[in-house]
Amino acid sequence: MEALYGTGVALITPFNADFTIDVEALKQVVEHCIAGGVDYLVVLGTTGESVTLAKSEKQLVIKTVIEQNSGRLPLVLGVGGNNTFQLVDELKSTNLEPFKAVLSVSPYYNKPTQEGIYRHYKMLAEASAIPIILYNVPSRTGSNVLPETVLRLAELPNIVAVKEASGNMEQVNKIIGKKPEDFMVISGDDITALETVLSGGSGVISVIAQGLPSEFSKMIRLGLEHVEDEAFAMHEEMKEGMELIFKEGNPAGIKAMMAAQGLCNPEVRLPLVPATRELTAQIAGFMKSFKTIQA
């Protein structure tokens, strides 16, 4: 799975003012990421507000990204939820040929036991024609996929990686220290992404990397090459932006950052609301000062 090393981007889904999908803005975002040197794109992840999209809208997003990407970067498809059997049907009925892997968030709200999480992913792995990436984000799901469960799942042939977004480096390091050699640990937390890479992780699936694609992907490359001083310097320059875009939730913050660059509108779908005027101004101020530093 060498295609999944480095910086992946959890793409937003841009909306028009009437909350329909802004296809032209989505094309711009894809182009912005590719031009910035990211390594792969994740379509319809949680940052893409996939839970608020109708089936036809999801198909439109997939079609738009595939066509705009035109084979230039590897693609990963988000297929996640808390209804295991429904996800199995979705995996079996979806054309997965354009994608390198499926990213599947751990079941939310149900709060399954570790055994339930294991059996859920085992069933998805058996149903999927392409590899599965586990996605652990306990702040959103209400349950933590423990290292022991990740390591148990890592032994299954069609599960190739975990996107670890717990932000708990002790947990991340435990997985890295005991995982099979070919199993990948991918950071799902922008703030700890560099630390994860330096500890032996394979890269990141990032939110801010679509706002600062060239800078963030360069930092991750430096981390993978263990050019630590320069990588940490870049991390410090971007740290305020990483904190700001999550201050009022994701993807409201990153959409405000993208809007500040004229790439899309800041609209999100209810129950989410756009970033407040105060946060929008803070993000715009960060972008102005950051670009000045880079210049």
The CATH superfamily name is: Aldolase class I
Biggest sheet, spatial arrangement of strands: 1-2-3-4-5-6-7-8
Number of helices: 12
**What is the C-alpha radius of gyration, as a whole number of Å?**
18 Å
Sheet with the most strands, sense and barrel status: 8 strands, parallel, barrel
Query: In what range is the share of β-strand residues?
Result: 5-15%
Low-confidence stretches: none
CATH overall fold name: TIM Barrel
The outline comes out as globular
The oligomeric status of these chains comes to single chain
As a percent range, the share of helical residues equals 40-55%
> Structural class per helix/strand content?
alpha/beta
Average pLDDT number: 97
* CATH class categorisation: Alpha Beta
Assigned CATH architecture: Alpha-Beta Barrel
Order of helices and strands: EHEHEHEHEHHEHEHEHHHH
Site (Part of a proton relay during catalysis): 46, 109
Function: Catalyzes the condensation of (S)-aspartate-beta-semialdehyde [(S)-ASA] and pyruvate to 4-hydroxy-tetrahydrodipicolinate (HTPA).
Pathway: Amino-acid biosynthesis; L-lysine biosynthesis via DAP pathway; (S)-tetrahydrodipicolinate from L-aspartate: step 3/4
Organism: Zeaxanthinibacter enoshimensis
Can you walk through the features of this model?
Homotetramer; dimer of dimers. The active site is at 135 (proton donor/acceptor), 163 (schiff-base intermediate with substrate). This is 4-hydroxy-tetrahydrodipicolinate synthase. It catalyses: L-aspartate 4-semialdehyde + pyruvate = (2S,4S)-4-hydroxy-2,3,4,5-tetrahydrodipicolinate + H2O + H(+). Pfam families: DHDPS. This protein is α/β, with parallel strands linked by helices and 295 residues long. It has one domain (2-232): Aldolase class I (TIM Barrel). The chain is built from twelve helices and eight strands. It has helices at residues 23-35, 55-69, 84-93, 114-127, 138-141, 147-153, 169-178, 193-198, 213-224, 228-245, 252-260, 277-294, and strands at residues 6-10, 40-43, 75-78, 101-105, 132-136, 159-164, 184-187, 203-206. The protein has an eight-stranded parallel beta barrel, surrounded by five helices. Helix 1 links the parallel strand 1 and strand 2. The two termini are 35 Å apart.
